[in-house]
Amino acid sequence: MSHHPELQQWMDRVAEHFPNLSKPLASGLALWSFGMILARTCSLSAVAVLLAPLLGQSFNTVRERLRDTYREAHAKSGAQRAELDVTVC
Questions:
Q1: Contacts with 64 (C-beta within 8 Å, 6 or more apart), sequence order
Q2: pLDDT computed for residue 32 by the predictor
């Protein structure tokens, strides 16, 4: 995944401030917050539309990645899925 330097810096900053989060959850939180700031909305579709070209991925791929940030572990595919515990944040 290619990142713009500003997005990579933001991802590093989020990981630094939330060391208890797994890398995928910190990345998802960083993508959400970065996208919301740029889109000036918290709409899933609007954030995905804005981030997809920046990440070089399709709208649906980015949308699913963002959704995985707030989904329960059992609702995600894969064996090692974690939930975002907002009390940690």
A1: none
A2: 94
